[in-house]
Write a structure and sequence with these properties.
By secondary structure, the chain is α/β, with parallel strands linked by helices.
Length: about 325
């Protein structure tokens, strides 16, 4: 990449099961403009790629730029993928996403702008490692709790992708044998008990069983089919009995998992991010922290490894994608 090209902005994209967030980022990692859309994954691959391309174009327009001014684009993608070939092998929460040439399809929609892809959890970890709370850390695990649960592993200052580029799929680590069915088809995955989707499922089951909760009135009043992280945070803060019980259970299983991470990887830091963690803040992390240290074999040393809230919030994946785009362009 030429010196002139290195100064060009790039676009980072956070593609999740519910939203697409695109941001134009300059060479100093400043976000110049953003745009956002619903993912609508049920409409199929082509429709999602088209919506993603429109979101990128909207962000570029908001920054008073054109696609000619953009050096490259990096989009997150959930699930197993091959970043070198730009192929999504399997995305458990996106219907029909198997062996999709995602980078090629998006580049075509963006008039040939170079497009790179990487796992969303890896990008979130890369963002926090490069620009966020883990800037001075060599060994770190990032956990991002949203619609699903993504993760990224950093060893010796580098994102660890594994032999088949699928390391860090922590949402699909089994923590409850014979537990609820996960989007990947297995039972008892962390995602099936601790994600926002799992929390919402268990709240609805409680309401159907006749449990009292402010959520019943909220759902009726708002007429919505999805419980947002913000509403969960409000109910949790007010100690709504059903919501507090369900979220506490999800925190417990996440804490058990993190205790196992301490025993397996012995990291310097655990970073917890994603929409649920961001909405609830430290009130979400503290109970997780208590359980995690309890399940760590070497409790004394584990307590020297902080479990902290992500610093970049909703922009962690977006900024990580921008960093990765520059790495690939370079």
């Amino acid at each position: 990449m030429s010196k002139a090209a290195t100064k060009k902005p790039v676009v980072g994209v956070d593609l999740g099961a519910t939203k697409v967030l695109a941001g134009v980022v300059d060479a100093d990692h400043r976000i110049l403009a953003t745009a956002k859309r619903a993912t609508k994954g049920g409409q199929g691959v082509d429709a999602v790629v088209e919506r993603l391309a429109k979101t990128v174009r909207d962000a570029v327009k908001q920054a008073d730029l054109s696609l000619d001014d953009i050096a490259g684009v990096c989009s997150a993608a959930p699930g197993a993928l091959n970043p070198d070939d730009g192929i999504v092998r399997f995305a458990p929460n996106m219907e029909g996403w198997e062996n999709i040439p995602f980078a090629h399809l998006l580049s075509e929609q963006l008039s040939g702008v170079p497009v790179f892809i990487e796992n969303d959890g890896n990008l979130g970890a890369l963002g926090e490692l490069t620009l966020g709370v883990a800037r001075d850390v060599k060994n770190m695990v990032g956990i991002f709790v949203g619609t699903g649960i993504g993760g990224g592993i950093v060893l010796d200052g580098k994102v660890w992708r594994g032999s088949h580029m699928t390391a860090g799929e922590i949402g699909h680590m089994v923590v409850l044998a014979d537990g609820p069915v996960c989007g990947c088809g297995k039972r008892g995955c962390l995602e099936s008990v601790s994600s926002r989707t799992a929390i919402e499922r268990d709240i609805r089951l409680g309401l159907r069983a006749g449990r009292e909760s402010m959520m019943a009135e909220w759902l009726q009043r708002e007429g919505r089919d999805r419980i947002t992280s913000g509403v969960l945070a409000e109910a949790y803060e007010k100690r709504d009995p059903l919501v507090y019980e369900v979220i506490s259970r999800s925190q417990h299983y996440l804490g058990i998992f993190i205790g196992s991470v301490f025993n397996f990887i012995d990291p310097d830091m655990i970073v917890i991010g994603g929409g649920v963690a961001e909405a609830l803040g430290e009130a979400y992390v503290e109970p997780v922290r208590a359980v995690a240290y309890q399940y760590a074999m070497n409790r004394r040393d584990a307590r020297t490894a902080p479990i902290v809230l992500a610093e970049l919030g909703d922009n962690a994946v977006l900024l990580g994608a921008a960093v990765y785009a520059r790495q690939r362009l370079g």
